[in-house]
């Protein structure tokens, strides 16, 4: 009887270490940003294509990106990022589901980082 209890206890301990589950919270680092320089120029400035991919199993919404250098003279198509200041709202704050990608292009004399800064997580 005592041996069975030890085996059951050991199995429970091993399972608790091995099963992390999918409910781990998402962070802005789960948003992968890639930029590609496009051929040609727009208004005499280099043209970039930006993709932002949600690599978390949960939905992220209200995504904010660092966008220092993005100003009213920089063309963004479609309006993929709102421009409140040093932070931009991605895709109007709409949800980004797991593995979803949002694309936008911009033209600027300097490349802008668009580093993910914050988001709200919905893992329901």
Automatic annotation (TrEMBL):
Residues 1-23 form the signal peptide. The keyword Signal applies. GO terms for biological process: cell fate determination. Keywords: Signal. PANTHER family: PROTEIN TAPETUM DETERMINANT 1-LIKE-RELATED, PTHR33184:SF33. This is Uncharacterized protein. It comes from Triticum urartu (Red wild einkorn).
């Amino acid at each position: 009887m005592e041996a069975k209890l030890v085996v059951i206890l050991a199995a429970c301990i091993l399972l608790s270490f091995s099963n992390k589950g999918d409910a781990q919270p998402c962070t802005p680092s789960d948003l992968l940003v890639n930029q590609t320089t496009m051929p040609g120029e727009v208004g005499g400035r280099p043209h970039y294509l930006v993709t932002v991919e949600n690599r978390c199993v949960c939905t992220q919404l209200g995504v904010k990106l660092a966008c220092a250098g993005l100003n009213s003279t920089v063309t963004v198509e479609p309006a993929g990022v709102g421009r409140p200041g040093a932070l931009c709202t991605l895709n109007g704050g709409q949800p980004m589901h797991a593995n979803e990608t949002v694309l936008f292009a911009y033209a600027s004399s300097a490349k802008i980082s668009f580093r993910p800064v914050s988001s709200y997580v919905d893992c329901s």
